[in-house]
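I am still getting used to backbone structure tokens and would like to learn alongside you. Label the sequence line and the structure token line clearly, so we can match residues to local backbone shapes. Go ahead whenever you are ready, and we will take it from there:
>
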Amino acid sequence: MKKTKINTMNRTLALAALVALIATPVLRADDSNSGDNSKSSDNSSQNSDSSKSSSSDNSKSGDNNNGDNNSGDNNNNSGTVSPVQSKADPYGMDKAGSVMLAGSDAASKSFDTTVLPSLTKFVSSALPEGVNNTKSTAFEIDPNKIVLANNTAVRAYFVSEGASYHNSIGVDAVAAGQKGPQSSWDEATADTSKLIFPDASSSEGGFSSSTYGTRTATDPVLPGDFVNVGTYAKGTKLDFFLISNGANGGNNVFSTDEALNSDGFGQHVAAFTTHLFAVPQLNSPYIFLSFEDLWSGGDKDINDTIIALDVGVATVNSLLATPEPAMPLTFAACLGLALIAVRKNKKATAAV
């Protein structure tokens, strides 16, 4: 009778541990030297915009493509057009669309409130100004492997800048099965390339002479301003690039595909996700790119222009290593309980 009770108890314990193991949910990733040297001139248009206001009753709507299989409420035809638009046009590229005001639709409001504050803090600690950041934790994922997992409406947000240059940001979309650019010149002049931020300069940057928090002809963007880049098919590879001082005539192109960068510096772009800094927000659609704008890396702080990309949850998850840290720990704990129960059962049987 004693043997039967012990066996029954330990078998029950083992069974409970295995049930807990099977029932454990799989957790996803947390979201939770060319050109002029000063920021004194610019090819932008219109007068300053004194506030970071997100909307007005008589403003225009966005002008990009429809369609969205990514984060749910990033409509690629939404937002309020900023009254300050740069006219800079390096390499004669088509523009992806107008720069839209921060917080002017539901998706951008969510980005501004749930992501931007913690992202700003992370950048300050992981990519500090004037420091060699080549060993930073911000190098989490390979920026040369951004391949869309679904048909996706892509959006780019301006985050910050710490440059004396007026840098331009663009993207080359290479369709599945197509050959990509073979040089930075090919990338910037390809028919598939678009200009996202013609002048990624901000009054909230460290080198601005504009009134802080305003949009001006020389500093046309503020954190959270965004561009609806376009809707791309599953399998499209997105190669983003910075044109160093492009709004002032600079022509050095630094790509997320480091093989195209002719200066030999292999870390012009840091790429990371909310996995590194956010209070756990499951199923994040965001990737962040942080660029170095100087030939051969300059000071190597790799924070001269920073943008956020909404490329969809599936694409972000495909870039992150799996399984997540929580899963192996849970698995090990449950497996440990099961093994302990089995061992106790064996010992009890042998003792009887």
Notes: Residues 90-319 form one domain.
